[in-house]
Design a protein that fits this description.
By secondary structure, this protein is of the alpha+beta class. It has six helices and twelve strands.
Length: 257
């Protein structure tokens, strides 16, 4: 087992997690677009480490430096911000995650990074905070269902400010706002599913489509789908859950009897 930094020659092996997608989801359909995005933004909006078993990528950590990271918080320059990390099922609980993180810590410290930030979740299935506690991260800010966590490299603490959600929707009908972002294949999958459900509501819903760029995240405080300016969906969601979330807001516009 070994760990290496992701280079331009490694794009074909990015997103190994898509080999283990649940049945009935189409996330893998968007992998080519995400690989294209990864290549176009490598070294700016995304960097990474791959865990290899011989020549096979079986785990990764994808991140970006704070100056260009697509995250809903602001911090000092030269801080690494983790987007996501994964180890394939057959390689879990064997110390491989620690191998990746140890490599990352050593490599980033050698580059003069102050520390590493991650917005971990309370969800066992996805970026759970306990994973990062095991790697020596500590919680510095809670904003349920997330915990902003930090691991010091060259600096014991850094200033961090969460970017407030600041999108103002229409007032005459339900507004569904979508941000295009290919950093993870789940993103465009959700984009298209939410769009499909929203269009099914006809003229009850106003659909707004924006680019999920560095500037838009800094402006609005999110790249997640918004329903009437609210984050009602976190991560992958079913068509039923999306429809229910939109209907809840549509009911607010119905005249009272």
């Amino acid at each position: 087992m070994q760990v290496k930094r992701v280079g331009s020659g490694d794009l074909a092996s990015t997103y190994c997690c898509m080999k283990e997608t649940p049945l009935g989801v189409n996330w893998a359909d968007y992998v080519p677009k995400s690989k294209e995005w990864f290549g176009a933004n490598l070294g700016k909006h995304i960097d990474g480490y791959h865990l290899l078993d011989d020549d096979n990528v079986v785990g990764f950590i994808y991140w970006a430096s704070s100056e260009n990271a697509l995250v809903a918080y602001e911090t000092e320059p030269k801080v690494a911000c983790i987007y996501c990390t994964e180890v394939l099922r057959n390689y879990l609980h064997k110390g491989h995650g620690r191998l990746m993180f140890d490599f990352m810590k050593s490599d980033l410290k050698g580059q003069g990074f102050k520390g590493i930030l991650v917005d971990a979740s309370d969800f066992k299935e996805w970026m759970h905070y306990e994973l990062f506690l095991k790697q020596g991260f500590r919680v510095i800010r809670e904003h349920a269902p997330f915990k902003l966590m930090y691991f010091p490299l060259m600096k014991e603490s850094v200033d961090v400010k969460l970017i407030d959600l600041s999108y103002q929707p229409s007032k005459d009908k339900v507004e569904v706002t979508l941000f295009s972002n290919f950093a993870c294949p789940v993103g465009p999958s959700m984009y298209n599913l939410v769009k499909k459900v929203a269009l099914g509501f006809g003229d009850q819903v106003k659909l707004v489509e924006l680019s999920g760029t560095f500037d838009s995240i800094r402006k609005y405080g999110t790249s997640d789908p918004l329903i009437n300016g609210k984050i009602k969906l976190l991560g992958p969601a079913s068509e039923e859950a999306i429809r229910k979330a939109i209907q809840e807001e549509a009911d607010r516009f119905k005249p009272s009897m």
